[in-house]
Amino acid sequence: MEFFVTLIQVLDSTVRLATPLLLACLAGLYSERAGIFDIGLEGKMLMAAFFSAAVAAVTGSVWLGLLAGIASSLVLSALHGLASITFRGNQLISGVAINFLASGLTVLIAQSWFKQGGRTPSLFGGGRFEPIEFPFVDAISGVPFIGPIYSELLSGHSILVYVAFLLVPATWWILFRTRFGLRLRAVGENPAAVDTAGVSVVGLRFAAVAICGVLCGIAGAYLATALQAGFVKEMTAGRGFIALAALIFAKWRPWHAMGACLLFGLLQAVALRFQNIDLGGVVIPVQVMDALPYILTVVILAGFVGKAIPPRAGGEPYVKER
Amino acid sequence: MEKMPKWADVVLIPVISLILAALLSALVILAIGENPVEAVNLMVTGALGSTYGWGYTLYYATNFMFTGLAVAVAFHARMFNIGGEGQAMLGGLGVAIVCLYVPWPHWSIALLAACAASMIFGAAWAAIPAYLQAKRGSHIVITTIMFNFIAAAFLNYMLVNVMRPQGSMDPATARFPEAVQLPTFQSMFSTAENVVFRGAPANISFFVAIVACVIVWALIWRTRLGYEIRSYGKTETGAVYAGISPVRITIIAMLISGGLAGMMAINNVMGEAERLVLNSTEGAGFIGIAVALMGRSHPFGVFLAAILFGFLYQGGAELALWTSIPRELIVVIQALVILFTGALDNMVRMPLEKVFLSLRKGAE
Question: Which ipTM value was assigned to this complex?
Fold first, then answer.
């Protein structure tokens, strides 16, 4: 029974930790399916984390914070679009620049506004997303097995967690069951064909980059206003890159993305709870858990276990005429 | 026919990009309520106003020369090595092993061995992404990013569990023996009555970095291998037609790139810290990207850009010391330089090309 309680706690923490990964991963999914590589997920999340926490701290409203976070992330998305779509620059270099921009600006502005060493004041009350309690939690929590699963694992997360997981079927439906989704995927595989059909390549790619911005914004806001209470320097801590890894791991598919993010979330949760894991004589150091998402991604990329093939036109700026 | 004269491509565009980045940085400083002119003054006096300031500027510049050259060599083969950070970390591990576990009679021999070890370790860390790119087609950018994180975890493990001296809480190796301490600028250039570069970390590695610049120049423009790397970078199909093996060039270019990034460790680990600490690279691997972009992947350009960034780093540290502007301002400037010289290159280039075309038409 004690094992079961621990298991539920670890899984509960997995869900919390997987949420920002999932949001950022889906963000990258839209962008990369449309042929725009985005290694700036990390920067956009960080920017959104700061602005959501800053606005929530000043206004006391977490919803205004969320909007500010999304807006700031969208500005960086627009920059990425400008560089990689309008001026046909190198998408990877643009992503690197965006990561540094966010990393520097957040601390600079935080120091200038709040003078607390690059952090925002702690959020409380309406400045944070509160957990949502499902109905009948009290009644069911006493039931063995089902009770803890319902009251601990499923209930009691902030609304953004449920949004993130609902976005998975929504993304699947948009990408594979709507006209917009078909065109979005086509523009990532063969933009010339989309152009010939009379659909704007630039418009579609900007739309994809904008969706990516919105989702990264939610991811950042979740980090600063739900998972933690306020912004601290470099608080994304490589999550944007883990999301990128999850995206490759999932081979650019929404349901698999959820699986990959839950897996990587589980690794983080286990690393948080147990430092070094003792498997009857063999001790797995905590650093192995830290590195495992990246190692798994390299293995998948190497194609030894099911090859990951990115969208064909990914990373290539579209030039109408040669 | 070229749309622009060569000097415009080599000098004018980087200078305009740099001015744009500087203007935006000035706006950022204004926006946080500080005076940009005063800030620049402070940076110049802090970084270039004394031999002490120069000692730091050139120390940082040495790091950036190695990582900048690393990115530049990969750029010539049209690869984006974003893994300089991880390769430099591993280079540090190589230097630490050589310095700690071998009793060297003199620093000069130790330096040669450390150069070799850092190169081998850095190159080895680049070898797996290179192999995967060449043989399995996995994107080098993604694999090198992943390898940065794996390197950080690996180094963390090595320092905490293996190399930390007994009884020490600090995740770092023991201090290197005195015999392998490199001569600093202070000991090299001071006379009895006039002490210069007092306490500054610039050391003999600076000259190793300059030699590396010259060797890379000779390699890229004066050897058969360099020609093959450049032609592969210009057009892969053409290179294959000329009998150049993409697998071979990809792997060799990445090995050189990783080796150069690794060599940074002789400066920061052997020359300055004299022990291996966590996060010894301090992001220098990423600054190499900005340096290579600004320097147009030419060793001389890399040299100049590295000194510029060395100045920014030392100046930024002075700013943080004397004003309320945090060090992160430098990260913003670095981001703007990467943005304008790299990603938004066409924004500057397209209008300039139009200007030169119309000038040419006017002349005819």
Answer: 0.89
